[in-house]
TrEMBL record:
Protein name (database record): tRNA-dihydrouridine(47) synthase [NAD(P)(+)]
Origin: domain of life: Eukaryota
Keyword Repeat: yes
Organism taxonomic ancestry: Eukaryota, Metazoa, Echinodermata, Eleutherozoa, Asterozoa
Catalysis performed (reactions): 5,6-dihydrouridine(47) in tRNA + NADP(+) = uridine(47) in tRNA + NADPH + H(+); a 5,6-dihydrouridine in mRNA + NADP(+) = a uridine in mRNA + NADPH + H(+); a 5,6-dihydrouridine in mRNA + NAD(+) = a uridine in mRNA + NADH + H(+); 5,6-dihydrouridine(47) in tRNA + NAD(+) = uridine(47) in tRNA + NADH + H(+)
Ranges of residues in domain C3H1-type: 121-149, 162-187
TM region(s), chain numbering: none
């Protein structure tokens, strides 16, 4: 097969791409490299560590030759250091060599001084009420513009003639500002509604966990009450010893305090009608020693546990005390219901007195499921919808900071949104202290629909680590314990923990913490096989994950790291014994990995099929972020962030050795079509070209720099 040069392989007509037809074959180029040079280059590439094995027919030797030289093996070696510099002449002094060169410092992030889009003042935006055809309740006091005629006259050219929101829901809520408005606007710019389709979808709420305006106001005015969290924090502050802390935690979790629960007549034994705290974590029941019971009674008598039970009592009734409860118990230790002594009218629930115990919580079965990891920036709702359609079983939202959620920041609450197609969905919280995280968890438990809450103990970025959050919690065991216990106390759904092997690269600590984490109340631990210092620059240590699986038994443990094919999943599950795997970067590089896992095959996906996936993503983005100019550019930004990972995929048909490894960097190669070659480009300008195929031309002066620097190649 003849190779194409870099100029020829990117020259394609827009009609071939937008029409969705098959892209033409690569344009052949003049082969000027000697065959012996190709052989030498192939030998160097095959011996080079961290380089993927690509078939020789697809390698772009011309581009490799221009970058590395005429196949010289010396040109592939790293530059010599100051101690072994071969360029030094014997007897040459330091002064003769000139001033020493500055040491190259590798950038650790790409989110510094990134170009930003122009901020549009509120006065230039059309009022949302006017867009939807309603009357603005603020009238002249509204900060938005109400001049529809001026906005219609200044409309930008439409991107396309088909509006996804209008075709899906029967009405586009962006009206005159929609960039696809020609499909649902009249000549006088009135919004058209497909009544039949709109009524059929009116009752369907596609997006859940939206931040209500009244809740946002209450959060900002600090008028939201956190009864469960305040009770736990009060008990935590008064319980200095570990035994008392264990007692207080289970007391909140079990429900009513000792005043409303009947104890056995014999001191030092567990109640006959309730499981002991140890039973709830799956272990055999044990008797409570007399010293612990005495301490518990002391805490109760001192008034450390004061629960308001007046909601189920009359105005003249008093809350039942421990003595009253013991007085109404029979000789066998069974408690006589208080309702029989104090008749009431109507149905009285006990949710405010006896809260959900751990054994009564809704459990999530993670075993054997494909779990999409919480991915900052790129793991947004449209991307999760794509992965869900391709076979993902469990999804989790992006990392959300507990403090920002408590402040009612809409941008942070947007990370908790859930699509109706996500049948098993969780949110991930990050924070520094038990009070903020427990209050935030209670807030989510009350106002959001989630199946589990994940605690982030693996975030390696300095901004979070230096404040004591993320992976820093692995070095703050006491705070870590209080946070997990607080989550378990206030939540009615399971608590999961995502962590790393440790903080230091040479000192793993996860195996010491994992058994304790389950004792503290967590239902599942997900272990990323790298430390905080390693980030993504080393291979995930699945041997250490296997050790942690052993210490975690009989509890389940999920492994995470370096999964890019169904063979990786099969190998790691068999060798480590983990209950399942979490897929992170592998889903960004090839989201169809979930299909491969379910079907147990390598999918040689075509370039046009990959373009259809991107088109599906942009449609979901226009639905989620909006089809106006602001929504289109936001969709474009997140699409480009995803393309910064997606270009690393190497098509199955051009690989010499399967499967592709996540640390392997491909040599310069030519795809089987111009579109496939474009998808493999590492140039940001080519990613912008792909976005223009789907979202139209970029604004004047547009620049893009990826937020995450892909430094994970070997």
């Amino acid at each position: 097969m003849e190779e194409s040069n870099s100029q020829g392989r990117l020259s394609m007509t827009e009609g071939n791409i937008e029409g969705g037809g098959t892209a033409p074959d690569p344009t052949p180029c003049k082969d000027t490299l000697h065959p012996e040079a190709k052989v030498r280059l192939m030998k160097i590439l095959n011996e080079r560590q961290g380089t993927a094995r690509v078939k020789a027919d697809f390698i772009d030797f011309e581009k490799i030759h221009l970058k590395y030289g005429f196949g010289s093996s010396e040109s592939h070696q790293p530059p010599p250091n100051s101690e072994g510099d071969s360029s030094k002449t014997p007897g040459q002094t330091a002064d003769a060599r000139g001033p020493p060169k500055k040491k190259f410092k590798k950038e650790r992030g790409m989110n510094h001084n990134r170009p930003r889009n122009r901020w549009v003042p509120v006065s230039e935006k059309l009022c949302p009420s006017i867009i939807s055809g309603e009357v603005c309740s603020y009238g002249e006091r509204c900060n938005y513009s109400h001049d529809i005629a001026a906005k219609a006259a200044a409309r930008e050219l439409d991107i396309g003639d088909r509006c996804y929101n209008f075709e899906t829901f029967g009405k586009c809520r962006y009206g005159v500002v929609c960039r696809f408005g020609s499909s649902h606007l009249t000549e006088d710019f009135r919004n058209i509604t497909d009544e039949e389709k709109f009524e059929a979808n009116a009752s369907k709420s596609a997006t859940l966990n939206n931040l209500a305006i009244d809740l946002k106001v209450k959060l900002r005015k600090k008028k939201v009450k956190f009864e469960k969290a305040e009770q736990f924090l009060s008990l935590l502050a008064k319980s200095k010893k570990k035994s008392l802390r264990q007692f207080d935690q289970n007391e909140i979790r079990n429900g009513a305090p000792e005043e409303t629960r009947c104890l056995s007549s014999t001191p030092g034994t567990a109640p006959s009608n309730l499981p002991t705290p140890v039973d709830e974590v799956g272990q055999n029941s044990v008797a409570v020693d007399q010293e612990s019971t005495a301490n518990q009674n002391q805490v109760l008598e001192s008034g450390s546990v004061q629960r308001d039970a007046a909601t189920n009592l009359g105005p003249d009734d008093a809350a039942p005390t421990l003595a009253a409860c013991q007085a109404t118990s029979n000789q066998s230790g069974d408690c006589v219901p208080l309702a029989s002594q104090q008749p009431r009218s109507g149905i009285v629930t006990n949710q405010d007195i006896i809260r959900t115990r751990k054994c009564e919580k809704k459990q999530v079965n993670f075993e054997g499921k494909s779990y999409l990891a919480p991915l900052t920036t790129v793991g947004n709702l449209p991307f999760r919808r794509v992965c869900k359609r391709l076979g993902a079983d469990i999804t989790c939202g992006e990392m959300a900071m507990a403090t920002n959620l408590l402040q009612g920041q809409p941008s942070e609450w947007a990370l908790l949104k859930r699509h109706s197609s996500e049948d098993c969905f969780g949110v991930q919280l990050a924070g520094y202290f038990p009070d903020t995280i427990s209050k935030c968890a209670e807030l989510i438990n009350t106002y959001c629909e989630v199946d589990f809450v994940d605690l982030n103990v693996g975030c390696p970025i300095d901004l979070v680590f230096q404040k004591g959050g993320g992976s820093a919690l692995m070095g703050r065991a006491n705070k870590f314990e209080d946070i997990v216990r607080g989550l378990d106390a206030v939540l009615d759904v399971p608590v999961t923990v995502k962590m790393r092997t440790g903080i230091s690269e040479k000192h793993n600590t996860a195996h010491k913490l994992i058994p304790k984490i389950y004792d503290w109340g967590a239902s599942l631990v997900t272990l990323h096989g790298r430390s905080r210092e390693q980030r993504y620059t080393r291979t995930a240590d699945w041997n250490y994950i296997r050790q942690c699986v052993e210490v975690a038994k009989p509890h389940p443990l999920i492994g995470n790291g370096d999964i890019l094919s169904y063979e990786d999943v099969k190998t790691h599950l068999e060798n480590s014994g983990a209950a399942g795997v979490m897929i992170a970067r592998g889903a960004l590089i090839k989201p169809w990995i979930f299909t491969e896992i379910k079907e147990q095959r390598h999918w040689d996906i075509s370039a046009n099929e990959r373009l259809d996936i991107l088109r599906e993503y942009t449609n979901y983005g226009l639905e989620h972020w909006g089809s106006d100019t602001e929504g289109v550019e936001k969709t474009r930004r997140f699409l480009l962030e995803w393309l910064s990972f997606l270009h690393r995929y190497i098509p199955v048909g051009i690989l010499e050795r399967l499967p592709q490894k996540i640390q392997e960097r491909p040599p310069y190669y030519v795809g089987r079509s111009d579109l496939e070659t474009l998808f493999s480009s590492t140039n940001c300008a080519d990613w912008v070209k792909i976005s223009e195929m789907l979202l139209g031309p970029v604004p004047d002066g547009f620049q893009f720099l990826p937020k995450h620097k892909a430094n994970s190649y070997s």
